[in-house]
Amino acid sequence: MGFKAAEAVSKLEWDFRPYVDAFGVSPEPTGQSLWLFQQNYNNVISAARRTAVSRAAVLAEEFETSTAEERRAEAEKWAGLSWDEAIAESARILEGALGTDMSEQVHSRLATLVDELTGSCPSSDQIMALPGRTRSAYLGWFVGQVSDPEGLTVGMS
To answer: What is the pTM of this model?
Structure first.
């Protein structure tokens, strides 16, 4: 047989153990709440992209307006660094340019959207308590499941 509604999509079942003592099945979203979630998701992602682009533009402008002498001094500083020092300095520069909290802010906003869509099953606090990579994987899985239920199977068993 072709289409079977009972088998068409998986339950929104999640288990955050061992990182967070929480597990459950999120309720199936209504069409209207899903539409609102997707609109808000797109707004969050668009805002994050605009922020990254504007921060990159500031860095480019700073480079363009620096003098040849300033650039030479910067090159000499980098030439004198060990590999580990250069990596640490690169990380410091990126943190200043992009803000270490940018991904945390995006995750926090997305966790709030998931919380609102699922009636706090899971809550934004539970999502944010996950380690960063695990949180990214969950958020990606969740968005995939509500956007294209048959297209994403990462993390499913």
So the answer is: 0.68
At 37-89, the pLDDT tens digits run 999 888 888 887 777 777 667 767 777 787 778 777 777 777 777 766 766 67
CA proximity to 31, closest of 23, 20, 39 = 39
* CA–CA separation, 130 and 132 (whole Å): 6
User: For 76, how many CA atoms within 13 A lie in the half-sphere containing its CB?
Assistant: 6
Q: Which residue bears the tokens 């020092």?
A: 85
Alpha-carbon distances of 109 from 14, 63, 127, rounded to whole Å = 19, 32, 11
Q: Please, how many CA atoms are within 13 Å of residue 121, restricted to the half-sphere of its CB?
A: 11
- Each residue of 91-111: b (16+ CB within 10 Å) or e? eeeeeeeeeeeeeeebbbbbb
46 vs 91, higher pLDDT: 46
Provide the pLDDT for residue 61. Answer: 74
Domain ranges of the chain: 11-147
Both structure tokens of 85: 């020092």
